[in-house]
Design goal:
Blueprint lengths: L5 E6 L10 H12 L7 E5 L14 H17 L11 E6 L1 H9 L3 H4 L2 E7 L12 H17 L33 E6 L19 E4 L19 H13 L1 E3 L5 E3 L3 H12 L10 E3 L8 E4 L4 E6 L7 E6 H4 L4 E7 L9 E9 L3 E9 L4 E5 L4 E8 H7 L5 E6 L6 E8 L1 H4 E5 L9 E4 L8 E7 L8 E9 L6 E7 L8 E6 L6 E4 L16 E7 L4 E8 L1 H12 L3 H21 L17 H16 L16 H28 L1 H12 L3 H13 L2 H13 L2 H46 L5 H13 L2 H4 L11 H20 L2 H17 L1 H12 L12 H17 L8 H18 L6 H26 L2
Parallel strand pairs: 1-2, 1-3, 3-4, 4-5, 5-6, 10-12, 20-22
Antiparallel strand pairs: 7-8, 9-15, 11-19, 12-18, 13-17, 13-19, 14-15, 14-18, 16-17, 21-28, 22-27, 23-26, 23-28, 24-25, 24-27
Length: 924
């Protein structure tokens, strides 16, 4: 254990294993063995026992403390290297990145940390804010970093497409305590369905990059594959080795120079930093076998299928291209690309050898690399006007290719900027309507660009269709680069080939623009790198599928708040309808669910939020997110549909499959059938025992377990109360059908008794007409009209009496179910701890008090037989309106607040029933 390498600690995330470090460590091992300098890494890993830290925030603080101890333990392994600063690099995946960031809140630990690398980590905001512990953990970290580290936020002038480094801190900018720690964050891109793009960056990070934009990665990674994706693992290790230093005693350590580390990170994670070379390069004499060729064509392509036997020098006269301003030069499949291959020079002409350059200045710092189907494309885009302004003596641009055995090619495309830049206005919500941008590109076109204005929110998606019109003998191939000017590190590369099933590019942004940002001056740019031997048709349209998929990805966590708001309004409608004896709509299964009032409340809440944001005395502030009205309407409309589907599902299960949940409850509680029947009788006879039972379970286990079992048994209580009614209802329906059939049979036999009827009418005229004008049936029963009225009245009464309480209780059941679902993370954490034998481990339960209050109120409602005809329900109706607004204003992003709001509603409904009951007793 005499370690001389540089220490790296891997921190796993939600349900992550310490074994996930194996890819990073094994690549580092091979790289260290092949390293001539003797630099190697010592990888350590932390075992969090696969805790679900993203679902239950009670783990986070313990994980932070454990990581602190692990860092100190690693430090003790390097005591012999007293003269070397053995600072540590932390690599955190998923929630492990957040824990790695939080651990440096301790100044005693922060001084040992050199760099933190975040892989697909939700840094500034959780994916879903499930409980107060998660919210508290993030708030504490943010509050500490706000005072101890410089923030880097985009503003109105930010345009990273023109200058990426305008927001990267430089040397001498470490003004706060934590500024010397380099923080690098990476996101997985579109394939990461667990942590969306916008959450992977942070205002405190120095560098951010998406895997789809990292050089030599250029791939979107899903959440788990990010820790073993070979392309990404190689880049991370190259950076770590790049900032490592070795001394004369073979001790390896990380460079303390923040500026050097930052530039190295940009070189590996953003783009290669090829610095301009001031010294001139002298070329070999002409008798060396090299060939020189001058060409001034606007579009030029030369392919060397068998490689090159000697140097090939291609001269481009600047005078010919001066009017076009831009010149694009590309080489591909060239093995010597890392050496200088493009120069500016002053050419000379000799009679013996023709035109050539004796010396030139390298332009390799302009070279960019873009992905291709099976290799890379190396290109340079030069501004001739700007270049001649600084070097007016240059007469030519020289492209110099060295000998190679591999096939290679040279492509040149000179053009005017105005001819290749197309501006469009991003279509808003509308039906797809394909618009042609370029009917047919000119043969030889390699580079063209599209400027997209109006993409200022993360969900509108523009779809571009790239169709090859004609490609000759070459295969179709397009590389697209998307740059978001206000989102540093969110560039994306997309490659389409003849094998690609869909020749479509979707363009959207990761998060909204800064306040006051002008997307007309700084539009989203789409650069297209085409095959010059092909001609293309380019068209675009608003993508409904892409937009809705982004809405689902970005705003699915809003759904619980809007669903709860819908149920609050349904409950309010049911309570009000119940008090109106003439209105029996509430007794139907769908009572109150088919409504649109809540959509108007959503609109009013948007206006109310602007007022509340200006009030400083509120204990909690409403959600500050400000998105288009379409998002709230779509999410809320989805919640209305979901509530209708849910209530009909519950009624279906209640009617036909009520015993299924009873069996599930028996398995969960391990009760026998006899014990469950006794329990149900006790609960039915003494409803207060319901609360005592499940409050005891909640205290003995956790609130999530207690609420889940309470939800199941609440359903069983409703099912048992409903079972007898169903039998009577079915019998009444059968009787009604039988009476109608009998009436139809009697009506067909009326014509046979016309003679007898005429005689009775004559008798009625002479005798008592009032009794005989209405004929009786043979059995002496009531007449047909009375029979039909009786059937209708019996059905109506039976229907009313059987269901007058069930609709109300189903809504309360659904609210209890939502509260149980919000405790899902806590329930899983408790079950997992019990399964692993850690049942004595203390798991903080932030919802135990709301759970006790809710179950107590539910027991009171069952005991009092709620709802009942009473006074004071108008106050409850007003409170429910306010709670609807509270869901939308305060609970969209901070989801756990819904538990407290549901508890408050239970208290209000129960309190109204108790107060009325007390009032009735006092006045008897």
């Amino acid at each position: 254990m005499k370690l001389k390498g540089a220490p790296v600690i891997f921190v796993p995330g939600n349900a992550g294993s310490y074994k996930q470090v194996r890819s990073l460590a094994s690549v580092a091992l091979r790289k260290g063995m092949d390293n001539d300098r003797g630099i190697h890494m010592d990888y350590f890993t932390v075992n969090f026992e696969e805790q679900l830290s993203a679902l239950y925030g009670g783990y986070l603080e313990n994980q932070k403390l454990f990581l602190r101890i692990a860092i100190l333990a690693v430090r003790t392994l390097y005591k012999e290297a007293n003269n070397v600063d053995k600072s540590i690099i932390l690599v955190g995946h998923s929630m492990g990145g957040k824990v790695a960031q939080a651990v440096i809140q301790d100044p005693a630990i922060a001084k040992y940390i050199n760099t933190i690398i975040f892989i697909s980590s939700p840094i500034d905001k959780p994916v879903v804010n499930f409980d107060p512990k998660i919210n508290e953990f993030y708030s504490n970290t943010d509050g500490y970093f706000h005072n101890k580290r410089t923030t880097h936020l985009p503003n109105r002038q930010t345009n990273v497409c023109l200058n990426y480094q305008d927001k990267i801190p430089h040397q001498g900018n470490e003004s706060k305590i934590l500024d010397n720690i380099l923080m690098i964050s990476m996101g997985g891109g579109n394939r990461d369905l667990l942590v969306r793009d916008g959450l992977t960056t942070s205002q405190y990070n120095d560098i951010h990059a998406m895997t789809s934009s990292i050089p030599k990665v250029w791939l979107s990674c899903d959440h788990l594959s990010a820790v073993w994706c070979l392309q990404l693992v190689l880049v991370i290790n190259r950076f770590i080795f790049g900032i490592s230093v070795i001394d004369e005693n073979k001790n390896v350590f990380f460079s303390p120079d923040k500026y050097y580390r930052t530039q190295t990170a940009i070189n590996y994670f953003v783009k290669p930093l090829n610095k301009p070379k001031s010294n001139e390069v002298y070329f070999p004499k002409l008798n060396s076998g090299s060939s020189w060729q001058e060409d001034s064509k606007i579009a030029f392509r030369k392919v060397f299928k068998n490689g090159l036997r000697a140097d090939y020098n291609h001269l481009l006269p600047t005078a010919k291209y001066k009017e076009l301003k831009k010149i694009y030069i590309e080489i591909d499949s060239y093995e010597d690309f890392e050496n200088d291959w493009v120069f500016g020079c002053t050419a000379h002409r000799t009679e013996a050898s023709g035109l050539y350059c004796q010396k030139g200045t390298s332009l390799s710092h302009f070279v960019q690399t873009i992905p291709s189907h099976d290799n890379y494309r190396y290109m340079v885009l030069l501004d001739i006007h700007r270049m001649l302004k600084y070097y007016p003596d240059w007469t030519h641009i020289l492209v110099r290719l060295k000998p190679t055995n591999k096939p290679t090619s040279l492509k040149i495309d000179a053009y005017s900027v105005e001819d290749r830049k197309y501006k469009i206005k991003a279509p808003k919500f509308s039906l797809p309507k394909l618009k042609t941008l370029v009917n047919e590109t000119v043969m030889g076109t390699i580079h063209t660009g599209v400027l997209i204005e109006g993409l200022d929110e993360p969900f509108p998606t523009v779809q571009f269709d790239i169709e090859p019109v004609e490609c000759g003998d070459d295969e179709f191939g397009v590389t697209a680069k998307i740059c978001i000017p206000w989102a540093r590190g969110f560039n994306r590369h997309i490659h389409l080939t003849h094998d690609t099933k869909v020749k479509t590019i979707y363009v959207n942004v990761p998060f909204s623009t800064p306040s006051g940002y002008n997307t007309t001056q700084n539009p989203v740019t789409l650069d297209l790198f085409l095959n010059p031997s092909c001609r293309y048709k380019i068209s675009y349209q608003f993508s409904i599928a892409g937009t809705f998929s982004k809405i689902v990805q970005e705003f699915y966590h809003w759904l619980p708040a809007h669903l709860t708001a819908v149920l609050f309004l349904v409950l309010r409608n049911q309570i009000v309808s119940f008090q109106n004896s003439e209105d029996a709509l509430f007794v139907k299964p769908y009572a109150g669910f088919f409504q649109s009032k809540s959509l108007y409340i959503v609109t009013g809440c948007r206006l109310l939020k602007k007022l509340l944001l200006n009030l400083k005395f509120l204990p909690i502030s409403p959600d500050t997110s400000n998105y288009s009205f379409y998002v709230s309407i779509i999410i809320h409309g989805t919640a209305i549909v979901l509530s209708i589907v849910s209530v009909f599902s519950i009624w279906t299960i209640l009617t036909f499959h009520g015993n299924i949940l009873h069996k599930i409850a028996l398995k969960l509680t391990r009760l026998s059938t006899a014990s469950s029947e006794i329990l149900m009788k006790v609960v039915t006879t003494l409803p207060l025992s319901f609360g005592v039972l499940f409050i005891s379970i909640s205290v003995g286990t956790c609130s999530g377990i207690g609420l889940t079992l309470a939800t199941i048994f609440y359903f069983l209580v409703i099912s048992n109360a409903y079972k007898d009614y169903l039998e009577n209802w079915a019998w009444d329906k059968a009787k009604g059908i039988f009476k109608r059939i009998r009436q139809k049979i009697r009506s067909t036999s009326k014509n046979k008794g016309t003679v007898a009827l005429s005689q009775r009418e004559i008798i009625a005229v002479d005798g008592n007409p009032g009794q005989e004008l209405i004929p009786n049936n043979e059995n002496g029963d009531t007449n047909e009209l009375d029979d039909s009225n009786e059937v209708a009245n019996e059905e109506k009464c039976s229907y009313f009496e059987g269901l007058e309480n069930v609709a109300f209780h189903i809504t309360m059941l659904m609210l209890l179910g939502i509260m149980s679902a919000l405790n899902f993370g806590l329930s899983v954490a408790w079950i997992k701890a019990k399964y692993q034998g850690h049942i004595h481990e203390h798991l903080p339960d932030p919802f135990i008090i709301p759970t006790i209050i809710t179950l107590t109120c539910l027991s009171v409602l069952l005991q009092l037989g709620a709802p009942r005809k009473s006074s004071g329900y108008h106050y409850v109706a007003i409170i429910l309106y306010l709670c609807v607004c509270g869901c939308i204003l305060f609970c969209q992003e901070i989801v756990y607040r819904l538990s407290y709001l549901i508890t408050f509603v239970y208290v209000c409904v129960a309190l109204q029933e108790v107060c009325y009951n007390f009032y009735t007793l006092m006045h008897k």
